[in-house]
Specification:
alpha/beta, two-stranded antiparallel ribbon, 10 helices, globular
C-alpha cells in the first residue's frame, strides 16, 4: 500500500536537524531545470503565476535565485519535516520514531510541482510552486504537461502493483493521470455531519488526510480493509457511502 499526499505552501525550516535517515529526490535534475525556468521570472511574473502578494513573490524570487543544484544539510531538510500546514499537522511526523520513518519511506509519497514525487526523507530546499501553475517548459505550457507520464510511472514503480491511497488534493493527483496507472487507486473522503447534512470542510479534510497517512504508518496498514478501521479524531467508516474507488468517513461536527 502506498499513500500519496500533497505538499504544503507553508514550510518550516527553523526546526533543528535530526539524526534520522535522509535521501535525495529522484527527480532532482528536473527540479533544477524547473527552478532555472522560475529563476528567470520577475517578482511581477511570480505574482501573476501563483496569484500571491508582492511580499510572497519577493520571498519566492529569492528562493529561486538561491536554489542550489545540490541539496545539503545546510540548505535543505527532509520533506516530511519541512512541509507544514494542515495536512502535516495531521501527519504529525514529529511523533515518528526511526522505524516509522523507515516504513514511511517505503509506503508514503508526496507530490510536488517542483520535485515531482518525493519520499518522506528526501531533502528539499525552500520553494513554492503549485502543480497547477502555468509555468511554460519544454514539454508544454503547464507543470501537468511536464510531469505527466513521469509521475504515472513513478507511482506505479513505487506501489509495485499494490493499492495507491490517494490522500492528495484534486489539483495534485490529477498530475498522476489515474486512468493511465496500472496500480489500483482508492480515494478516502472526510466529511462533517452537521445535523444530518454532510459537508466537506477543507481545513478538516486536509488534517484528516494527514492523520490517515499517520495511521497507515503507525499501524503498518497494508490493505483497504485495514483502512476502514481508521477512527482518529472521531471519524468512522461509512460503508453505505463507499464503493471500490471511494472510502467515505464521517464524524459529528464540533
Amino acid at each position: 500500500m502506498l499513500a500519496v499526499l500533497s505538499p504544503a505552501k507553508k514550510l518550516n525550516f527553523d526546526q533543528p536537524e535530526n539524526d534520522l535517515i535522509e535521501t535525495l529526490p529522484d527527480f532532482q535534475s528536473d527540479a533544477n531545470r524547473l527552478a532555472q525556468i522560475a529563476k528567470k521570472l520577475s517578482v511581477s511574473d511570480l505574482r501573476g503565476l501563483m496569484h500571491i502578494s508582492e511580499d510572497l513573490a519577493k520571498l519566492n524570487k529569492a528562493r529561486f535565485d538561491g536554489f542550489s543544484k545540490e541539496s545539503t544539510p545546510e540548505n535543505s531538510k527532509q520533506a516530511m519535516f519541512a512541509f507544514a500546514g494542515d495536512t502535516y499537522t495531521g501527519l504529525d511526523s514529529a511523533s515518528f520514531d526511526a522505524a516509522d520513518c523507515d516504513y514511511a519511506q517505503g509506503h508514503l509519497r508526496i507530490l510536488s510541482g517542483l520535485y515531482g514525487l518525493l519520499r518522506p526523507m528526501d531533502r528539499i530546499q525552500p520553494y513554492r510552486l503549485e502543480m497547477g501553475s502555468r509555468l511554460a517548459n519544454k514539454s508544454g505550457p503547464t507543470l501537468y504537461a511536464y510531469w505527466d507520464k513521469k509521475l504515472t510511472k513513478a507511482l506505479d514503480d513505487a506501489s509495485q502493483g499494490n493499492v495507491v491511497v490517494n490522500l492528495a488534493s484534486a489539483e495534485y493527483f490529477k498530475a498522476a493521470n489515474e486512468k493511465a496507472m496500472a496500480s489500483p487507486v482508492v480515494t478516502p473522503s472526510f466529511k462533517e455531519d452537521r445535523n444530518g447534512e454532510l459537508k466537506m470542510i477543507g481545513f478538516f479534510a486536509k488534517q484528516a488526510r494527514g492523520a490517515m497517512a499517520r495511521y497507515i504508518v503507525k499501524n503498518r496498514v497494508k490493505t483497504v480493509e485495514g483502512l476502514k478501521d481508521f477512527d482518529l479524531d472521531g471519524y468512522k467508516f461509512q460503508p453505505s457511502l463507499s464503493d471500490d474507488k471511494t472510502l467515505s468517513f464521517t464524524r459529528n461536527a464540533a
